[in-house]
Amino acid sequence: MKYERFEDLPVWQTAIELAKGIYELTKDRFFNQPGDLCDRLRRASLSVSNNIAEGFERGSTPELLAFLYISRGSCGETRSMLIFTERFPEAKHIQSHISELKSKAESCSRQIRGWADSLQNSDIKGQRHLNKNSRVIYDAKKRADLFEKKLQQTLKTARPQDYPDEE
């Protein structure tokens, strides 16, 4: 499926839910203490969706990949701060919320990794580089690859009795 808008990407939607959950979590009294944990946690979680959006809008695969890895790093940063938070006895009452958010951050990270892996193996340089001619060439190559794959599968499953020798 081809996505036209970053808002339609499942990974972006998960990332937005992560940031929303972090903002709700950090309203808890535990985060009303000196230091910048609350602010850093909020910023890191919001960075996940923002970098997905910015990379998507850039229009080139190399730039999208760079932003996806930044986004994935922000997932790790968010999880790290959640793990740090859950180690405090004073945060015991928000343990289940923290656990849920860690899982959501891990899900984002996995989705980003899968997307990045597929992009690294793609011949398309990005929307910015597509024109009518390059799209025709790309589509023809994909059809040829699919045909070759089906042909290979047919040859693997063919039995000699299906093709008797003509004498």
Low-confidence stretches: none
Q: What is the chain-wise order of helices and strands?
A: HHHHH
What is the number of domains?
2
Q: Give helix % range.
A: 55-70%
The biggest beta sheet is recorded as:
none
**Outline:** elongated
Please sum up the structure shown.
The protein is an all-alpha fold and about 170 residues long. Helices cover about 70% and strands about 0% of the residues. It contains five helices and no strands.
Describe the structure.
- The protein is mainly α and 167 residues long.
- The chain folds into 2 domains: 6-122, de novo design (two linked rop proteins), CATH 1.20.1440.60; 123-158.
- Helix content is 69%, strand content 0%.
- Helix 2 runs antiparallel to helix 3.
- The model has no long low-confidence stretch (mean pLDDT 87).
Task: Give the secondary structure arrangement, pairings included.
Elements: H1 10-25, H2 37-58, H3 61-86, H4 95-120, H5 132-157
Helix pairs in contact: 1-2, 1-4, 2-3, 3-4
